[in-house]
Amino acid sequence: MTTPRDLTITALERAAERSVEPGDLSLALAAAEAIDLLPAGAVTLAGDRLVPAGHPAITDHLLAEAASALLREAPYETVGDWLWRRGRNLADTYLTRLEAEGELVREQRRRWLFLHSDHVVLADSPTRRGAAARLAADEPVLAALTRAIGFRGGPAADAAPDVTDRAAARVLTALDDALAELAAERKRRSHRQADAAAENVRRGY
């Protein structure tokens, strides 16, 4: 299992708690990919830039795809730029992959709030149980990613996860910045829509 897969499954498990914006989840998945690529030897961090470090054998299809997507020409790419570029529609990519692998199944009576389909639920599988065990153990990276997209984590949810790996911590900081930027853009868009609606009312429409 990979961190992005565990995060996707965790978000699905907790969807009844609250809806998750697909954009938020996509940014968090891109961060999770970067965090997994660091110890895999596919990339290193030079300041805030992701520098490709080789072509290690990565068995997970989507993580290998992420490694292939790294920019390989100087000055390389900042973590923030990676999150926005790689994160585009990434939640849909992971959901589609999980469904193709049988981790998601169609059902008639239950609805996940952030899925396009109204009839997709998690299968009972070792993958699902592994993600749940990792969250319950308060593994810091998964706990931090889960917290970033608005969910409480495991038993120690009231305390901020202690991510001791400096590179992972820098990726998580970039994720927080990207999520804040996305939230601000949503707020600006909402205000523009409200202003437009008020103007239409003023004009008698």
Structural overview:
The protein is built from eight helices and five strands. It has 205 residues and is mainly alpha-helical. The relative contact order is 0.17.
Name the features:
mainly alpha; 8 helices; two-stranded antiparallel ribbon; 3-stranded antiparallel beta sheet; globular; 205 residues
- What is the helix tally? 8
Assembly state here? single chain
* Radius of gyration of CA atoms, rounded to a whole number: 18 Å
Sequence stretches where pLDDT stays below 50 over 5 or more residues = 109-113
Strand content: 5-15%
SSE-based structural type:
mainly alpha
Helix content, binned percent = 55-70%
Mean pLDDT: 86
| Total beta strand runs | 5
| Count of domains | 1
How far is it from the N-terminal to the C-terminal residue, by CA?
54 Å
Break the fold down into its secondary structure elements and pairings.
Blueprint: H1 3-13, H2 22-40, E1 43-46, E2 49-52, H3 61-68, E3 77-78, H4 79-86, H5 90-100, E4 104-106, E5 120-122, H6 126-136, H7 140-148, H8 166-202
Antiparallel strand pairs: 1-2, 2-3, 4-5
Brief sketch in words of this structure:
The N and C termini lie far apart (54 Å).
